Amino acid sequence: MLALFLLAWIVQMYYYFYIFRPFLLQLPIRNSKQPTNFDAGVSVIICAKNEAHNLVTNLRSILTQDYPNFEVIVVDDNSTDNTANILADFVAQYSHLRILSTKKFDSKAQGKKKALTNGIMFAAYDIVLLTDADCYANSDQWLQLMVAPFVRSEVDIVLGVSPYLPTATSHWLNTIIQYETAYTALQYLSFAHCGFAYMGVGRNLAYRKKLFYEQIGFQTHQHIASGDDDLFIGTAATTTNTVWVASSDALCLTPPPLTWQAWVKQKKRHLSTARHYRLSHQIRLTLLSASHLWLYLSAIISLLTLPTPQVSLIAILLCLRYGFQVWYFPRLIVLQMHLTARQYVLADVVFVGYYLFFLPILIANQSPKWK
User: Fold this and answer.
1) Global pTM value
2) Hey, is 306 helix, strand or coil?
């Protein structure tokens, strides 16, 4: 049992030191504005299906960005609420807002992928920046910071971060959501920093329109309801064309699920694409998750079965791992993670339950609808 614990610990520390650490060393501890003279045209695309309330709350933060040359395209995906009227009111105030209805277009893609495909085809500019109707920009520098890397011609993809807001309800649920969101961001940004990007989040993601056409859109996974962000990035990203932006002024914030049932439903949708990742990505992620799970399971079993000296060794090695987490924790604050260091470490332990609960769902590989 001690040997199995040591194996899991070694794998974990490999990821912490050789995958996470290089990325973390690049993260600023405070807000970092990166002004640039880059002013190429940008098309911000938002897909909305019955999002009238969210559009009223969030759309203005997108329309009022401090950037000289951009349009905002809202794709109304057959909404049956007051979305059309809300958008009409915004159009009267903002000339750079354009409205597109999916009723006018035909596409083999389904759900959000159909709406997004139409939006990208409709875009006037080569750089498209994606977010969702339930998100708002953390500052008026969001657009500027997210598109600044495109000044380099080799950059085709920019990965952003979209944290969840804290809530006063369901303390444990919000703790897990905050931890899981930060940990996921740590993974996909660190992997991208090392040259093997496997996903992005559609709430804050930019790429070139020409790249979308080169990949023939979502054709390779158009039959899957989800995957407009992770499956597309996993296919289109290379070791040189993908960068990330993690400034706290370049975030898109969104409210989290408020009930365990809503959160589980959301995670089912996210996990439905995992089995379609590249094999190399699946192997890396499986090793990381399996070693995390077995680290704690083997530690618990060892605590109950092994003699004191071996248990002491396990405790020391766990403390070393926690020490590394405490070191990098202040840098994750830049990503708007609303947890204390103590809560973060505790959630890291509790996350064992996350793996055990969602593993059968991952294996079942159900594909829920977008809305």
Assistant:
1) 0.89
2) coil
